[in-house]
Amino acid sequence: MRILIESNYTAKQGRGQATEDKFTDPNVEIDPNTQIQILRSSELLQKAIDLLQQDYPDITVEEIQGALEVSPVYGADRTGQGQIATNVLSADYTSNDPAKTQRILQTLLSVFQVYNLEQQKQRLSKGLAFINEQLPEIRQSVLEAEAALQAFRRGENVIDPAEQAGVTTSQLASVKQERESLKAQYREAKASYETLQQQIEASPRQARSTARLSESPRYQALLNQIQTTELELSRQQQQLTAEHPILQDLRQQREEQIALLRQEESRVLPNGVGAVGDQSILSQGQFGRGDVGLANQLTQAQNTLAGLAARDQSLAQTEAKLEAELREFPELIAQYSRLQPEVQVRQATLQRLLDARQELGLSIAQGGFDWQIVEAPLLGEQTSPNVIRNLLLGTVAGLFLGSIAAFVRESLDDTVHNSEDLGNNISLPLLGTLPALTQAEAREALATLPFYQNNIQEFTTPDLFQWKPLREALDLIYANIQLLKGGVPYKSLMVTSALSGEGKSTLSLGLAISASRLDQRVLIIDADLRNPSLHRVFNLTNHHGLSTLLTGDIPAQEWQSAPQWVYMRWDDVEDDLGEESEASSSLRRLPPSDLSLDVLTAGPSAADPVKLLSLERMKEVISAFQDSYDLILVDSPPVLGLVDTIPVGLGCDGVVMVGRMDKITRTELSNAVDILDKLNLIGLVANGVNQPTKNYKYLRA
User: Could you tell me which residue ranges the CobQ/CobB/MinD/ParA nucleotide binding domain spans (predicted)?
Assistant: First the structure.
């Protein structure tokens, strides 16, 4: 049979963490292998046996475990090139009775489904119980936070201090703007008032009194009568003496008219406002129509000024009140900012718990793993013996085991065998390859050179560079290095390797010779303070060198004299190493080559090379020589197992790593590149590459 163990809540994946996963055991996963182990457990199989006991009383757990085979069904992955386990399990039971096979599988399926539902319900019930325990506490915390916020609002008589502060600020700006407008109106009214006062030449009080008297017909009639009497009195005084009865009567008449005039003045001005004196009573109340208009305008201007002043005073009080309120708002806003978010957070927590409780309740009702039957249990069919199938299986198994053996052998062989392996494993440019040269091949190659004699038993490393294929390979590597920076040459390069014995010193010397042949001033520094070699290669003294510069034993002004000069000269010939017979007759002499190098040996051994090769000190040494040389090559220690390479490489413009074929492994190469990744690793060189000699025949052209 086949069953699908897809979970009901897997559809929630992709929307973040499911709610039940937040409050339930997150370790429950749809893992086919885990489900297989559960299905084969003794506890579940015993439940199946209890159901089968009536029909098969002799059946045991061990029997079912031995005959039951459960495995995942595999399908194509997303790429279509591989296979991946699906959530469909295939269960097969082997027995001599076909009906028994079908009955046992049906019983197991029923037990599996019941067990799954119970486990899932138990898991979700635990999460639901946890939520129910938390809800009362969260509700109480929400009520407390809301009560604190409500008490704050009632005590301060404000709903939202920030919003109220904005309203108050707007009101204050409006009041200030209105006061500015009032001040402008007041200045304008004040100017008009002063102009009217100058025109009338009287105070507003006097102008109002005079205007009222001028508008009274009776007052004006009395004034006219008094003026007539005074004219008559003046005329009679010219003709009569002062004691004449006529003059006395006129004077008496004048006094009576003035008394009536005062009575009329009191009637027109009941409060005595603007009352005139005895001397000026006859001159008051004689405004013309224009003067009366000006007096009214003056009075109106005075009233306007008084109104504007009162309005400004009221606005000033309002402004002071609003400013006082604004000074209180920062503290209120701070209190509100503490209370309101607390209420929101607690309300959100409560809502999440309520939502989670609802979802968990639905999940419990829905069930857990929906074990759908993809293929129902069938009657058993004969499976053995089957000769044809066994033969086919044997053939397939043999091929499979052979493939596995070949694969295991390939997998266990981690060694890099050729330059293609080197380039495919590391995403760095392959700068070139150095040909493999055995001891016998080296003697055969050197035998064709003019300096070599048959009685010489040993040859030195510089001798190897007279073998033209090696020189041409080094020239190509040097040219590729120079092309990396778009024609801008490197001033300093560190040459290293993952392990010792991979040819880093040989590559350093070869690059130096290639550069020197191009008339470059070259300095080689032996930075391998643990195992120096350059002084032995050139038979140089090693009493002074890099270590003495780093320790300060030699003053900085004498550093330029520390390198030792090496002169090299040989007669170049062209040869064809692919032809063993008549080798000497195939030689063609070329012009002699001579070149010179400067070598800074490692110097005396140091007790602590790591401390000696500090970053700043090594940079000082390289910087001291950069102006004197076109190229500085640093022969550093190997990378793996030592930390010496890091400070040396940080002081150089670039790093070149060499790897020997059939020696270095992919793991060692990857580890070394990871370490050098902190430096400017510009490329790799493959050493010991097996190449047919005929590849170099074109060199004779």
Answer: 493-632
Nearest to 545 by CA among 562, 522, 524, 523: 562
- The string of pLDDT tens digits covering residues 450-497 is 434 444 344 445 666 777 888 889 999 999 998 887 778 899 999 999
Write b or e for each residue in 682-696: b if 16 or more Cβ atoms lie within 10 A of its Cβ, otherwise e: bbbbbbbbeeeeeeb
Q: What is the β-pairing status of strands 588-589 and 430-435?
A: unpaired
Kindly give, in sequence order, each residue whose CB lies less than 8 Å from that of residue 314, ignoring residues fewer than 6 positions away.
none
The rounded distance, in Å, linking the Cα atoms of 683 and 483 is 12
Measured in degrees and rounded to the nearest 5, phi and psi for residue 610 equal: -65, -45
Identify the bridge partners of residue 565 per DSSP, sorted by sequence position: 598
Distant-in-sequence, close-in-space partners of 600: CB < 8 Å, separation ≥ 6: 523, 524, 525, 526, 545, 546, 549, 562, 563, 564, 625
Angle at 481 between CA 475 and CA 486, to 5 degrees: 125
Strand-pair partners of 597? 566
CA distances, 589 to each of 195, 295, 367, 585, 700 (Å) = 125, 135, 93, 11, 11
The whole-angstrom separation of Cα 206 and Cα 112 is 116
Instruction: Compute the half-sphere exposure of residue 614: CA atoms within 13 Å on the CB side of its CA.
Output: 9
- Tell whether pTM > 0.70: no
Residues across the chain: 701
- Say if CB 371 and CB 112 are below 8 A apart: yes
* Terminal CA-CA length for the chain: 76
- Write the burial class of residue 505 (CB in 10 Å: 0-12 exposed, 13-18 middle, 19+ buried): buried
Split at pLDDT 50, 70, 90, the class of 103 is confident
Judged by average pLDDT, the poorest of 63-72, 253-262, 406-415 is 406-415
The 3-class SS string of 266-301 reads: HHHCCCCCCCCCCCCCCCCCCCCHHHHHHHHHHHHH
Looking at residue 383, what is its pLDDT?
A: 57
Burial 526-556 (b: 16+ CB within 10 A, else e): bbbbeebbbbebbebebebbbbbbbeeebee
CA distance 41 to 174: 83
CA distance 195 to 247: 46
Check whether the bond before 385 is cis (ω within 30° of 0).
Answer: yes
Calculate the CA 202 to chain-centre distance: 83
Question: Between 3.40.50.300, 1.20.1050.10, 1.10.357.20, 2.60.40.1120, what CATH number should domain 419-700 receive?
Answer: 3.40.50.300
Burial 318-349 (b: 16+ CB within 10 A, else e): bbeebeebeeebeebbebbeebbebbeebeee
What number of helices (H) and strands (E) belong to the chain? Answer: 22, 14
* Cα angle 508-512-518, degrees, rounded to a multiple of 5: 155
In DSSP notation, 603-629 reads -S--S-HHHHT-HHHHHHHHHHHHTT-
**What letter does residue 697 receive in the DSSP assignment?**
G
Average pLDDT over residues 653-682: 90
- The number of CA neighbours under 13 Å toward the Cβ of 218 is 11
CB contact at 8 A, 156 and 333? no
Helix (H, G, I), strand (E, B) or coil at 6: coil
Helix axes 204-214, 245-268, angle to 10 degrees: 110
DSSP 499-546: STTSSHHHHHHHHHHHHHHTT--EEEEE--SSS--HHHHTT---SSSH
